[in-house]
Amino acid sequence: MSTSLFEQHRARLDSALEAIRTRGYWPAYNEMPSPKVYGETAPDDGKRAFEAHLGKQFTLDQPGQTGWHAGERSPYGVKLDVEYPVCDVAALIAAGQQAMSAWQAVGCEGRTGICVEILERLNRQSFELAHAVMMTTGQGWMMAFQAGAPHAQDRGLEAVAYAYREQSFIPAETTWEKPQGKNPPLVMKKRFEVVGRGVAVVIGCATFPTWNTYPGLFAALATGNPVIVKPHPNAILPAAISVRTIRQTLAENGIDPNLVTLCVARDNETTQRLVRDPAVRSIDFTGGSAFGQWLDQNCRQAQLYAELSGVNNVVIDSTDAYKAMMRNIAFTLSLYSGQMCTTTQAILVPAGGIATDEGHKSYDEICADLARAIEGLLGKPEVAFAVLGAVQSPDTLRRIDLANGGTIGRVVLASRKLDNPDFPNGEFHTPALLACDAADEAFYMEERFGPITYVVKVADTAAAVALSERIVNTRGALTAGLYSTSQQVIDAMTHATWRSKVALSVNLTSGVFVNQTSAFSDYHGTGGNPAANASLADSAFVANRFRVVQLRYHV
Amino acid sequence: MSTSLFEQHRARLDSALEAIRTRGYWPAYNEMPSPKVYGETAPDDGKRAFEAHLGKQFTLDQPGQTGWHAGERSPYGVKLDVEYPVCDVAALIAAGQQAMSAWQAVGCEGRTGICVEILERLNRQSFELAHAVMMTTGQGWMMAFQAGAPHAQDRGLEAVAYAYREQSFIPAETTWEKPQGKNPPLVMKKRFEVVGRGVAVVIGCATFPTWNTYPGLFAALATGNPVIVKPHPNAILPAAISVRTIRQTLAENGIDPNLVTLCVARDNETTQRLVRDPAVRSIDFTGGSAFGQWLDQNCRQAQLYAELSGVNNVVIDSTDAYKAMMRNIAFTLSLYSGQMCTTTQAILVPAGGIATDEGHKSYDEICADLARAIEGLLGKPEVAFAVLGAVQSPDTLRRIDLANGGTIGRVVLASRKLDNPDFPNGEFHTPALLACDAADEAFYMEERFGPITYVVKVADTAAAVALSERIVNTRGALTAGLYSTSQQVIDAMTHATWRSKVALSVNLTSGVFVNQTSAFSDYHGTGGNPAANASLADSAFVANRFRVVQLRYHV
To answer: Is the separation of the CB atoms in B251 and B277 below 8 Å?
Structure first.
């Protein structure tokens, strides 16, 4: 059955393999939430499927269930009241281990076929998933659909493709024949078995519960490992829907569904007990650096793939498209109220201003024009609500208040709370823009997650490039940007990013934004600076999740 | 120049790539120390080249030299008195970093061509290297030649092939073109730069100073990193010769030779300062588990590839070739006086004895017959000296005394010291064979490096297989063996090794031994049990030694 799934999905896999080889534009799943693509009834069906979860118990039939847990708080202010099964951690681990050997026996092609089948099914649930992502994370609808469903599925398929490629290099068997001069050769048969490392834990984040979870989940699963998904306590529903679909697909294909389970942890101690269990051999984590470092220090039995905090930055040296540059940056800062791990936090501007197609612009003019660009973008409420979404965390609300208070930088543009008639209890906030000097490192040199951005006054372009490099090396970053009309500056910044190992976007002025990465083409994170120790996705992301155990004997 | 080297060595690289894909028998470098292969004058030239180092200062022209250091003690009892440059650790690190960007600029093909060229030159120095390995490690001549030169070069080339394959997947650039309905598409050019992680440290061991050093050295070098080779204080010469050749080859190809340096550390503090330096981003280590765990805990800034202690074991269930089995095991235990990380330490035998082609053999008969097989093998002095080599470490001599004392197991065969007229001051010792019960875990459950082996009495075959699995899971192992005529037992042991992740050799009775692995075919270590966290060599061994930094812009 699993082999037939491999054959059935062979064309898509081949396309994915070609995409990771060439890394051009290739979307496996359509990003338009359109009935023409997903079926006439898909939008309504998905909405109803989402609504059917609300106020109910989300059954998963997992082992060791000890109770139920609810508590998700929607940034849109709507009631969710979904209850999730709480299961004994040891029971989930034991059940995953139990399921592992049959999963190994299915082989690389069998696992790959089932993984792609799971992704196809998740794709058909895209509207349901999008509503779940939107209501738990606060993302606007379009982002929730795209990042929550097709783009997340793309990233999952990307991981499956890398996992397949690496596993398919391992020959199932070989004959080793060593000549012995005039004597008969020594001949051995060797068999090579691909074996998963062991139980994988994937810890999700509050803002991208599918996009940041699927790569690790599918990389671990495709390489032969049981997976325990530990979602953020405020974004359980998208993970629960995903896990249920995975379990159904596994069961229908003769695999013990307990290979993949959901771990809803009532407290941090439960999570810590889970990740420190000797049976846990890999951990994928998206979240803050403090817990990431704790994992690194305390879970030495496991491989850790971590995406952590950072200070993303953009250097502005010069431009021949001033207005377009401002519009582009304004959109980046506004999108999902800056709650992306890729959002720019520090914009480094020469103290003497910059040359533009509209003449020289002083540092103060740049600050003012960027504030105006943000206000212009968000002028119409329907646009503002669509772009901003809602603020996910009370911590972010506190950071916004702090920014508006003027104690951590001069307020160029204060964040404003917007009233959304559709969601009267939601938290809608425009970006805060702050100004400071390069010397004010305490202000801009730590991550202030959310819609808070600094325009940092730096001596000159060379100092800005050097500062960018130092920020990335010491604080980490997933994205860096540059605006310049000078090839020399572009080269200098390029070399700086080689040293600090951060992806660089140059002169973005149209429909591509520094905070967006495209699956199969852009590497998300380099794995080479403090913001992440791994990249989504590359060979290193999958190659160490399985091991090869050989058997040899004479024939 | 480097591109022409790539073209020049293209055929060999292609063969290596084919070999790692199919993993059959393929030696890149000839293992016979024959004038017909290496040239009529090669043996004499090599010996003279080796002798020319003795009693001299080994100049390397490295930065930050503060003095000279000697102190190698030959297990053959000959005087070496080579002095090596001692260099300031910070100077070596800074020089490596300085050399890195030009090495990056050469690109994957350029680096690959130079790495293969280095290996070709090392191959031409095989006799010189073999003498250096023999006299520092105590290996017998044939092993010193094979493992010290061609087999080590094979492992180096294997790492280069894996590194090339993974790097060659990264497209230098791509065009990303996203349709926009009726509007013109979004078009971006993306460039992908392969960037090494940073300074690599490769820590050698006392027994295989080239074989265990070349994989990490060439994996790190080929992926764009500077490398500092830190040899064991008693086996510096083979590393020094290798580093000199590497530096010469680099310089001749326009690369700063300080890309690769030798770090001779007078004390542990120097080594610790080296590996904890924030600039050090990867560490390859072969040695004891205690320092391996220290590295793991204290060098969190670096990727660690470690081969550590273990308890290799063989289960004997039954055989249809009793004498050949005994001969095979006897050779394994005798070769290089058991000073291999792959030598069997525990032979697990059912208490009720086993069925053989010579009828039933009791546990006691097996002990006695194995002792006889060892004595038979080593009966002729010239064979004994060739097979045993000399004992490298005073610690191993102490362990031999302990074994002979009878306090850590019943002495079946005591180790004997042999007098070698060619090397009157050398340390030549036959294997000690001890017997104990499975319950005597304190005896056999820790690594006793050297010629000390236990025949462990286990309740039955099933208990032996289970014990083997537990030993591997808890103490680690690089090798496991099985003798059985029952497919059911072979399957049970095979499944056990899948769970404990150790390579299994079944029914070895001729010219292949459980402690030998063949480059390009056998994975050395699985990386999945406590004896090693990485395998030599696979994709995981290379894929995380470089990162990809992208640059994107509109066109």
So the answer is: no
